[in-house]
Amino acid sequence: MRIAEMNWMQVEAHVRGDDRAVLPVGSTEQHAGLSLAVDSILSERVAAEAAGPLAVPVFPVVSYGFTPSFVDYPGTVTLRLSTLCALLTDILDGMVRSGFRRITIVNGHGGNSPAHGAILEWLDRNRGCQVKWHNWWNAPKTFAKVQAIDPVASHASWMENFPWTRLPNVASPAHQKPMMDLARFQQLDPGAKKALLGDGNYGGLYQRPDEDMLAIWDVAVEETRALIADGWA
User: Fold this and answer.
1) Count of alpha carbons within 13 Å of 97, Cβ hemisphere only?
2) The domain spanning residue 79 has which CATH number?
3) Cα 221–225–226 angle (5° rounding)?
4) Which residues are paired to 31 by β-bridges?
5) Half-sphere exposure of 173 (CA within 13 A, CB side)
6) How many domains does the structure of the chain reveal?
7) d(Cα 73, Cα 139) in Å, to the nearest integer?
8) Which of 43, 74, 103, 220 is packed most tightly, with the most Cβ within 10 A?
C-alpha cells in the first residue's frame, strides 16, 4: 500500500484502525556500473514488498542522502547532514499530524546513519510516538545470508547488483576486485577518494547469479516485514 496510491480521505480512514507507516530513505550516488539510484530503488522496493501484505502505507522514498565522499563522481548529489536531519524530522512531523504514531524508517544508505541521532532527539519532542530505524541490507538475517553466499561483499559490488538496479546495455566486469583499504579511504578528500577507488566498487565480485540475489531479497523482505508488523512497545 503506497501513499501515492491513496487520497487524503483514505489515509484519514486508515489511521483510525492502524497507526503504522513506513518511510524509505535512500541516496543518489555512484554505484560503479549500477544505477545512481541503487539505494533509493532498493529501500523503496523492500519497504513496499514488506508492507504490502500488512496493508501498512509506504510513503514516497527520500531519494537524497548524506554522501560527501562521492561528490566528485558525476550524478552524485549529497545533502548536508543538517539538511537531511531537518528533512527527515519535517517528514515525521507531517506523518504524525496525519495520525501515524508507529513509523519504520527503511534506510538503504549507510551514510544516512548519523541522522538516526536526530530521530532520537525528535522522539523526545514527540512522546507517545515510536520510530524504528532499519538498515535493511545489514539487518542480522539479511547480512548473514549475504555472508553465507559470499563474505567478500561491499558498496557497489555484487551485493547491490539486483535485476532492478542494473542498467540496460551495461555489462558487469567478470573479475573480483581486491578490497580497498577503508581506513586510508576515510582520511582522504573526495578527489583523492575517487582516484583511489576508481570505478566505485569497494571490492568483491561485480555480479553473482540471480538465484543468489533473489535468495537474499526474500530474506530481506521477510525480515523487514517482521519489523514493521511486530515488536512495538
Assistant:
1) 7
2) 3.40.50.10310
3) 120
4) 33
5) 14
6) 1
7) 28
8) 43
pLDDT digits (tens, 9 = 90+) for 103-133: 999 999 999 999 999 999 999 999 999 999 9
**The pLDDT of residue 212:** 98
Give the residue numbers spanning the domain of 100.
3-229
Beta bridge partners of 23: 105
**Given this model, what pLDDT does residue 221 score?**
98
Kindly tell me the sign of the dihedral angle through the C-alpha atoms of 80, 126, 26, 155.
positive
User: For residue 63, how far is the Cα from the chain centroid?
Assistant: 9
- pLDDT of 201-233, one tens digit each? 999 999 999 999 999 999 999 999 999 999 999
Q: For residue 211, give every residue at least 6 positions away whose Cβ sits within 8 Å of its Cβ, in sequence order, or none.
A: none
This prediction's pTM: 0.97
**Which three cell numbers, joined as nine digits, stand for 38?**
541503487
In sequence order, what are the residues at sequence separation of 6 or more whose Cβ sits closer than 8 angstroms to the Cβ of residue 189?
none
